[in-house]
Amino acid sequence: MELRQLVRILLRRWWLIAIPAIVLGAVAVITYYAPPPTYAASMRFAVGYTPDPNLQSLYDEFYAAWLASEYIAGGLSDWAKTGDCASAVSGELAGRGVDVPAAAVAGSVVSDHSRSIVALYFSGSDPALLQSIAEAAARVLQTRNASVFPQNGPNGASVTPLDGAAAGPTPPSLRARLDLPVRIGLAIGVGVVLALIAHYLDPTIRERRDVEALGYSVIGEIPKSK
Fold first, then answer.
1. Which whole-number Å values give the CA distances from 142 to 131, 138, 139, 165, in the listed order?
2. Using CA atoms, how far apart are residues 25 and 185, in angstroms rounded to an integer?
3. From CA 3, how far away is CA 21, in angstroms rounded?
4. Chain segment 32-86, per-residue pLDDT in tens
5. Structure pTM?
């Protein structure tokens, strides 16, 4: 089928394309709801370990501390993903008069680390609550790492925040932005399929090429009346 013939078919049955597009498009518009605004915050921490001045080593006295800080950063990052850390953050928030279940804390925190830097990422729909969670998580990392990792010593590791706990809006996801256009595009696609099916099932001879396609020769044509 040539492209020009396909265009003629679609133009001839444009209403079959328009009806599903209008109906399904209207349903899509009516049932569409804008996604709620979301916010995100991130905090980075420098993790350190004070070297023992009495340690006798062939290497530089700070080498062991740098090496230990990388292990500590990995441990703290992994601990931040656990329910134990979420419960600690929830307890810290409760002490501030903010009631947030541990499950909600765990669902809003993602952690990562690189070398001696720990990064925490927070997401949620309430920027004020998100900032409170970030501040409580920072407090937990600073004050409770010794109880989780006794090898850090009685004073624990040094956890220094490098960023403030400020929450900002995040752009909507790609799926949210394309949801309505995809629905309307699918409606148009359904209309095109209906138009092609109607053409296939239509026995009416409309053009010279329809007769020639049946193997007959056309002697003459009666023009359309003006």
1. 17, 6, 5, 15
2. 9
3. 22
4. 777 788 999 999 999 987 766 665 655 566 777 788 889 999 999 999 999 999 9
5. 0.69
